[in-house]
Specification:
8 strands; Cathepsin B, Chain A; alpha+beta; 24% helix; 256 residues
């Protein structure tokens, strides 16, 4: 019986890891070596409720699987959303390209950070049909095309390496450019989230890259898109209290 219980516990822990991988590795001292750029000031007052899902077709919910590639999914989704908002079309970008072809040492096992955005500046993004996601570390393929690029990307000023920028600065970037990439501490309470406003704010260890697509001041929460599949949370999304679990740290946006 004891061995059986141990075996069941092993299966549960492995299953949870496989379903809810993270992968954000925050570089020590990153804020001292990057350029920050504040989003444009918004004339008048920002709305109390704003959700890009109500205004444009956004990147669909994805599932990173058992691979520490959340950074790749967050980065790709930010570019897809910016292009969709500006041009009215939803791109299908390769996450595996970011995972396998980066020269920064990022991988499923090692995780990664937001500076992989540079790959979408030059040489540019790769269509998903050329490089489908496998969720495994592998050598970079050759003969890839790069038909899409972003002009630039920037971190939002006002925060620190462990604290997000002010709420208004995050809102201004979302309002001006579209959903943004951010870090968050994804703990067991977040893994178990099923719905409602997440207020179990017990973690500060940033380990996960996600997107913020909107906000609601009346409820005091961000609307966060995850890469754990549509069966998690509210069809792949979570409403998370402002500041909870470091949500918004290392926030950044792209300009298509």
């Amino acid at each position: 019986m004891f061995r059986l219980l141990l075996f069941i516990g092993f299966l549960w822990s492995c299953g949870a890891h496989a379903q809810y991988s993270t992968g954000l590795v925050v570089k020590k001292g990153w804020s001292k070596t990057v350029q920050f750029a504040a989003p444009p000031m918004v004339r008048g007052q920002l709305p109390a409720h704003f959700d890009w899902r109500e205004k444009a077709a956004l990147s669909p919910i994805q599932n990173q699987g058992n691979c520490g590639s959340c950074w790749a999914f967050s980065i790709a989704a930010t570019m897809v959303d910016a292009v969709s908002i500006k041009q009215g079309r939803v791109l299908s970008l390769s996450h595996q390209y970011l995972l396998s072809c980066n020269k920064l040492g990022y991988s499923c096992a090692a995780g990664g950070f937001f500076d992989a955005h540079d790959m979408h500046v030059s040489p540019g993004a790769v269509p998903v049909y050329q490089y489908p996601y496998t969720g495994r570390d592998s050598a970079c393929r050759s003969n890839l095309t790069h038909p899409w690029h972003i002009s630039s990307w920037h971190y939002i000023p006002g925060g620190t390496e462990s604290r997000p920028p002010p709420i208004q600065a995050l809102k201004a970037a979302i309002y001006a450019y579209g959903p943004i990439s951010v870090g968050v501490a994804a703990d067991r309470a977040m893994q178990a989230y099923r719905g409602g406003v997440f207020k179990t704010c017990n973690s500060r260890q940033l380990n996960h890259a996600v997107n913020i697509v909107g906000w609601d001041d009346n409820g005091g929460y961000w609307i966060m898109r995850n890469s754990w599949g549509a069966n998690w949370g509210e069809k792949g999304y979570i409403r998370i209290k402002y500041g909870c679990n470091g949500i918004g740290t290392a926030a950044n946006y792209v300009i298509p």
